[in-house]
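Narrative summary of target 7.
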Amino acid sequence: MNIGDCMKRKVISSRSDITIQKAAEIMVHHHIGTLPIVDDSMHLIGVVTLHDLITPAIPDFYNLVEDLDFVHDFGAAEDEQPAQDYLLSPITRILKEPVYVEETAGLTRAITMLQEHDLNDLPVVDDNICLVGIASRVDIGVALLSNWTTSS
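Modeled conformation, tokenized:
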């Protein structure tokens, strides 16, 4: 079995001419955690994750406290938003180089790439590095587990 057998083929993606705010709106609307960024030919040029978008909204003191287990909520800080100039910045400001896998790759290669890069979703591309799908940690894990058998 390869990644092409378990990936989602309907991928929500966007072009690089959007703002950070628009990327957030797309992710909220489609309830996704990874937004692949493509050019007009669907060539994968970058990725934006939920983590990339949320990090600027986390209060600065978060990095100063070693153990946050005692904090049940951050009160008014939870309503904070990034500055308007940040939200209106082009998505290229936070765009990351994509980590991807070819659709013919095996499941073990795909899951190790997720582990190695601490990702939840992995874009899947064809031979021309054009986006053809996306596979989540769950998609790949379930496919791997489906092959497990016990001898009775």
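The two ends are 24 Å apart (CA to CA).
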